[in-house]
Structures are given as structure tokens and as C-alpha cells.
Amino acid sequence: MTLLNQTETADPLREPQLAFKSFWVLFSVGLLYVSFGVCFGLLEYGVPPILMSRGVDLASMGWVIALYIPFGLTFLWAPLIDAKPLPWLSYRIGWIALSQCVSSALLVMIALGDGYSAQVLFGLGLAVCFAVATMDLALDALAVDIIGPQYRAMAAGLKVAALAFGGLLGGGVLVGSFDRLGWSGTFLLTAGLPLLTLLPVLALTRADQPRSLTRVRPGILVTFRRAGAL
């Protein structure tokens, strides 16, 4: 049963409750996408100018593109996220919470590592990208499971808008404020966002349940064997 079961809308007394649930689901999911957009925007648009301002030569920054690798390889561990719920919170939100906490902790390490070598900073940045990409996997699955069909088009548009807004904050506002905030201030501010945006979605744990306890074990090969997949 999804959170927005259409059969419940037949009772007029339930309509305000369902409207509030719908708003809360979209609000919670949207905030997490904003958090994702901020981290991605800071890495995509912020890291190169920040490094250049610190004297790093443009020609030596080709490694920055490697930070995007986790986002292109999420299909490799998507079956694990789908098949193995963690022993806390709920089916999808457990993974979301873990990923947000890990990315926040890593960003704090980056904030405190002003003097770290480029290799260490790259390793920390790559780990942040793995955590953020994993959160995005679990969040997409959560959205599909608990958002009713009548709201999915709205949710898809919300995701695009939230990612764009987050990218504006991370790649625009934070970069523009770098001289005032400094290295530590910029990354500490970014580190607080995953934790703050995690709080609303914690209220959805009761709605976050697997659709069926007997469903086929997820996997890449299973996906390709489905009719019409190829």
C-alpha cells in the first residue's frame, strides 16, 4: 500500500489528511534533492575556481572530472541498496540517513583539511560523491514507492527544480561567498545541509516499506531478462 492510496480519497474527511501527507512527502523529498544539488553544484562548478584561486594550475585539474565517476556507476550497487535494508529506521530511509551522515562527516573532514594534499582532498571528494550518489539511488526508490501515481509527474518536475536550485546554491552562492566564508566556512556550511535536509524525511519511516516480501531478488541480470528490456 502506498502512502497516497487513492481509495482513501473517497472519504471527504480524509482529504485534508491526505493533502498534508502529499505535501510532506514532496517537501521532504524535494529538500533531499536540494541537498544533492548543492553538493553536486559545489563539486562541478565550485571546485575548479576555488582551486585556481589557491594557485592550482588549470592544466593540472583534469582529475576533477573523475569526481563524477560514482554518478555513472550507481547501477553497480543499486541491487544491493534495493535488496539489503539496513537494521535501523526503514527500508529506504536507512540508506538515505547513512549516506547523508557519511557525506556530512566527509565534508567536515574536507573543511578541516585546508592543508591536505591534492591527493587526499581528491580521495575525500570521491568518497563524498559515492555517498551522495547512494543517497540519490535510495531517494529515487523511496519516491517511486510512496508517491501516488497522481503526484509522480509533479514529483519528477520537483526533482529537476530542486536539483537546479541546489546547483545554484552550491555552484553559485557558495562560490560567490568563498572569499568571505573561507575554505572551512564554505565546506562546514555544506556539511550541515545533509543533516538538516534529512530531518523531514524521518517522519516517513512508517510509509517506507517494501512492496512485497516475496518479490524477485533485484539484480542487473534480472533487469535485462525482463520482457522489453532489450
Count of β-strands: 0
Low-confidence stretches: 1-13
Encode the helix/strand succession as letters: HHHHHHHH
**Average pLDDT, all residues:** 81
- Report the radius of gyration as a whole number of Å: 19 Å
Task: Indicate the percent of residues in helices.
Answer: 55-70%
Strand percentage: under 5%
Major sheet characteristics: none
> What is the CATH C-level name?
Mainly Alpha
Structural class: mainly alpha
Could you explain how this protein is built, in words?
The chain has 230 residues and is an all-alpha fold. It has a single domain (14-207, 216-225), classed as Up-down Bundle (Growth Hormone, Chain: A). 65% of the residues lie in helices and 0% in strands. The chain is globular. The protein starts with 14 loop residues before the first helix and ends in a 5-residue tail after the last helix. The relative contact order is 0.20. The model is unreliable at 1-13 (pLDDT under 50).
Tags for this model:
230 residues; mainly alpha; Growth Hormone, Chain: A
Summarize the structure.
It is built from eight helices and no strands. It has helices at 15-53, 69-72, 78-83, 93-111, 118-146, 152-176, 178-198, 220-225.
